[in-house]
Amino acid sequence: MRYTIEKPIDPLQFTENHLIVVFPGAVGAVGALDADVQSRMFGKSKFAPLSILSKNIGKNTYILRIADTNLISGSYFCNTVTYPDYEADVQALILTIRDKLGIKKENTLLWGESR
């Protein structure tokens, strides 16, 4: 599983941590041929790494971006014949990151563009 974690720009020690989980949209035919692996995996959108999203969220908010690497062009984060546990693995990743960063379930936001 491929993912990135972006740390808060301005962490505060006296407030709770938050997590935004970004499920990037379909990259498309042109994006699939992009020489930049980050663009192929996460797309070139306002939710991509180093985007405006990180500059416009609350303090103590981490951003977890998960790349849909199942099959050739992704499987919309759904189980497939070749990866029957994909959905469970995505959920397990989110739980692991939340536990590691001490983030409560109610402080987690799932966000996707088209999937």
The spatial strand order of the largest sheet comes to 1-3-2-4
H-E order: EEHHEHE
**Classification by helices and strands:** alpha/beta
**Terminal Cα separation, in Å?**
17 Å
Average residue pLDDT: 81
Describe it for me?
It is a single chain. The protein is α/β, with parallel strands linked by helices and 115 residues long. The chain has one domain (3-112). It has three helices and four strands, in the order E-E-H-H-E-H-E. The longest helix is centred in the C-terminal third of the chain and has 16 residues, at 86-101. The model has no long low-confidence stretch (mean pLDDT 81).
Strand and helix map with partners:
Layout: E1 3-6, E2 18-23, H1 28-32, H2 37-42, E3 61-66, H3 86-101, E4 108-112
Parallel strand pairs: 2-3, 2-4
Antiparallel strand pairs: 1-3
Short description:
This protein is an alpha/beta fold and 115 residues long.
What distinguishing features does this structure have?
115 residues, alpha/beta, four-stranded mixed β-sheet, 3 helices, 4 strands, 23% helix, globular
